[in-house]
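Hi everyone,

Forwarding the result from last night's run.
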Amino acid sequence: MTRNIPAPFASRLADGREILFFSSDGAPLVGVDRRDLPPRPTVPTTTVRRDPTTGDSVIVAPARQERTYKPPRTMCPLDPDPAGRSSEIPAEDYEVVVFENRFPSLSTPDGWEVAAPAQPDPLRVQWSGLGRCEVVCFTSDHDGSFAGLTQRRARLVIDAWTHRTAELFARSDIEEVYCFENRGEEIGVTLTHPHGQIYGYPFRTRRTASLLRTAAQYRNEHGRDLFEAVLASEIADGDRILVRTELTTAFVPYAAKWPVEVHVYPNRHVHNLTELTDAEADDLAAVYLTLLRAFDALYEAPLPYIASWHQYRTGEPEGYLHAELFSIRRSADKLKYLAGSESGRDAFVTDKTPEAIADELRAVIG
C-alpha cells in the first residue's frame, strides 16, 4: 500500500459479523450489540448461476427478500445506538463505519474451504455464492449526504475504501472489489442514511471483463494503454473537461450514456485505491466532493446517482483506477428509464449530447 492508513477499531456484532470503526480523532467509544439476532449460517446461502447463452454470472440470493426496507426514522439500522438495541452500530457516535452486510448477496462462512465443484451439465453451471458484502456508513448524520461531508471526512471514506480493497484483494475467494454508492429512492435505495457498499465478487463481472477485453484489443492494435489514451484525448479536446488539477481530472465522456455522467481519473496511472499517494487521495477527495455538490446544484434538489469505482489488482496488464458517477434524472422533473433498447439490447439512446451535459455541470461548478 502506497500510503499508511491507521488500522480501524474492530469489533463484533451480536451475530458475530465484523464491524470496523475508522476515525481521524482518536479511538471511538464503542458499546456492545445487545440484539437477539439469529446465528450466522455456517454454509453458503446464495449461489451463482451461469447464463449459458451469454456467459453472465447471476447471483441468486432469495434471503435478501427479507432485508430492511424503508424503516421509520426511529428504527434506522445505520444510526448510532449506544444502547446496542436497535441499530447495526452500537456507539454513541462515529465517523466512518464498515460492517458485514446482514443480508449479503455473497458471503464466505468462517472456515469454509474454497473449491470449484464439478459441473457435469454445461447448461446448469452453478457454484456457491462466496465472497463478501459490506456496508460503508459515511457519517452518523441521518440527514446528511456524501456531498455534505468535509474534505477531511471524504478522505477518511477513501481511506476506508482503500483498507477494505487491500484486505479483500488478498483473499482467495475474491476476484473483484467494487466500491459503490446508490443515492436516492429513484435509484432503488431503501435506507436513506448516507451509505455505500463494497462487493467482493468471486468472479470477474461482465462490465469489468468487457473493459479489460477492449483495453487488451486497443493495446494490441495501437500499442498503448486504452485508459491513458482516453484521458489524454479528453484533456487535449477540452470540450468535456469539468475539473482538472495537477493530480486529478474529471470529464464527461465522449460517448456518455446517461443524462448526467462524469468520469474521474487520477492523472497518474494506478490500478486501485491502494496505489494512491496521500496527496493524490486528498486531491481525489476534493474533486469528488466538487462533482457531487455540482450534481445537487444542477436541479436545485438532491440528484439520484450511482457512484461506481473501477479497480483492478496491482500488476494486471490492463486497468486504470477511475470512478464513474451517473444519474437517471434527465431534467428537473423527468427520469431516464431503461426501456426496450437499453434493457433489452444494452443499446443506450441518450437525450443529451455529452457536450451539453458538460456545459450544464460547468455552469454550477462555477
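The mean pLDDT is 96.

Cheers,
N.
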